[in-house]
Amino acid sequence: MTILFLILLFPFTLLANEPVWYEGETHLKNVRQITFGGDNAEAYFSTDGKLVVYQATRDSFQCDQIFIMNPDGSNKHLVSTGKGATTCSFFVPGKDEFIYCSTHDQAPECPTKPDRTLGYVWGLFDFEIYKAKTDGSKLTRLTNTPGYDAEAAVSPDGKEVVFTSGRDGDLELYKMNIDGSNPKRLTHTVGYDGGPFFSPDGKLIVYRAFHPRNPAELTKWQFLWDNKVVSPVRLELWVMDREGGHQRQVTELGAASFCPYMSPDGKWLIFTTNFADSVKKGMPNFDLFRIRPDGSGLERITTSPVFEGFPMWSYDGKYLIFASNRGEIKKPNETNIFLAEWEE
User: Fold this and answer.
1) 208: helix, coil or strand?
2) Which of 8, 117, 178, 305 could be cross-linked to 280 through a Cys-Cys bond (beta carbons 3.0 to 4.6 Å apart)?
3) φ and ψ at residue 225, rounded to 5 degrees
């Protein structure tokens, strides 16, 4: 998901000094802001917890690029090419490598933004998936199919990549070897299956999905697909086995729920949703919730009146990193990265 989507979804003016912690956030301790300025999101830890990779529109860039920094926010540096648009970066466990998705081989310019008359949508740009060293060198292209290949993450053993692709005429989940070989389709339901992550033990894949339930929804889905956009108005969380079997729905919230990430012990999924629908200036708000993989135990994690999203627990479970409009901002609608100690 791109930061452009967040800007479209939250066009209200924010206060310049939102708190970094809100009453009721009992699981979050010592919350601190680690980016300042620009729009920053989708931040993910390395397995040893020493680095964070994330995407940002900042400095002279007009669309997202990939950066790496230390968990305290120091030593921020560009690791993508600086061309095209990028999204969905993730470290390769056990190696000084990471993957990300980019349009730079299609054109050096930023892709054209989606037509706002289509509503709250994000564009299905011509992304391909790449692997590189953590200094940005030795860039290797892993996919080579027309259209959308993005939303990629790496398995805990570092051997496979799970991702979303439109290569077969619908947005489905696939996985491939870390070198791009042996792609395999995992889902086969009409609609959108995307945003996947492996479980910490590598046995499961968690993801978000929109499957049309009636002819009207199917017609709308086909219209959006024809216009190369996705609408996030209703997304539910799903889980399946690593090879695509035993697909089952986790949530039934009737809301926009996305970015599920499993806790290190496998007992919880933390995710972003507007299910609670707290409102600031007439707009639905997104918060972090968690739920058990069997759909029980829904619990609210953040309580702010502003956007929170893209959560990830550190591999040892001691920290939570997420994106938010809280804290110090320099212009309206800025999104920054926050780090908190996790209190169970």
Assistant:
1) strand
2) 305
3) -60, -40
The closest of 288, 312, 285 to 14, measured between CA atoms, is: 285
Alpha-carbon gap, residue 47 to 149, rounded angstroms: 24
Nearest Cα neighbor of 111 from 120, 122, 103 is: 103
- pTM for the structure as a whole: 0.92
Q: Which CATH superfamily is domain 36-296 in?
A: TolB, C-terminal domain (2.120.10.30)
How far apart CA 231 and CA 222 sit, in angstroms, is: 11
CA distances from residue 109 to 84, 113, 127 in whole angstroms, order as listed: 5, 12, 13
Report residue 194: phi and psi, to 5°: -160, -175
Q: What is the 3-state secondary structure (H, E, C) of 1-56?
A: CCHHHHHHHCCCCCCCECCCCCCCCCCEEEEEECCCCCEEEEEEECCCCCCEEEEE
Q: How far apart are CA 124 and CA 247, in angstroms?
A: 25
